[in-house]
Amino acid sequence: MFESIKEAALKLTKDLSCELNSFIAQVEKPYTLEDTVKYFIENKPRYIEYVRGALIREKTGKGYRLTHMFLDRDGRFVVRENGAPYGFRLDVMYLDPELDAHFGDSDMLILE
């Protein structure tokens, strides 16, 4: 059992890295809170009535790797029929100050 959603999310993203890596994109402009919210609204799995977005921030040598995933009503990660999670990874050079402030000292945001 995991002690936190963040711990579970990091394990899931590492275990399923081959599935998530196919979704990696690179962005040079600062990534914003608005970009994050837009992604979760536009890409919400249609068959799940209630979902939350989980955004995980990992520092890299060239900026940040952001992993976007969805949680269901019970806090479980939403996965496709093949077991791959809904979501993707995005490599960004910079975070917008507003988004960075929302992270604070944490490397994970939950958006409802």
Description of the molecule:
Helix content is 29%, strand content 28%. A five-stranded mixed β-sheet has the order 1-4-3-2-5, with helices on both faces. The chain is globular. The chain has four helices and five strands; from the N terminus they run ααβαβββαβ. It has one domain. The protein has 112 residues and is of the alpha+beta class.
Features of the shown structure:
112 residues; alpha+beta; 5-stranded mixed beta sheet; 4 helices; 5 strands
Biggest sheet strand order reads 1-4-3-2-5
Structurally, the number of domains stands at: 1
Q: Helix/strand/pairing class, anyone?
A: alpha+beta
Spans where pLDDT lies below 50 across 5 or more residues: 1-5
Strand content: 25-35%
Taking the sheet with the most strands, its summary is: 5 strands, mixed
- Span of the ends, CA to CA: 24 Å
Shape field: globular
Determine the number of helices (DSSP H or I, runs of at least 4 residues): 4
Helix content: 25-40%
Cα radius of gyration in angstroms: 13 Å
Strand segment count: 5
What do the pLDDT scores average to? 79
Question: How do the helices and strands follow one another from N- to C-terminus?
Answer: HHEHEEEHE
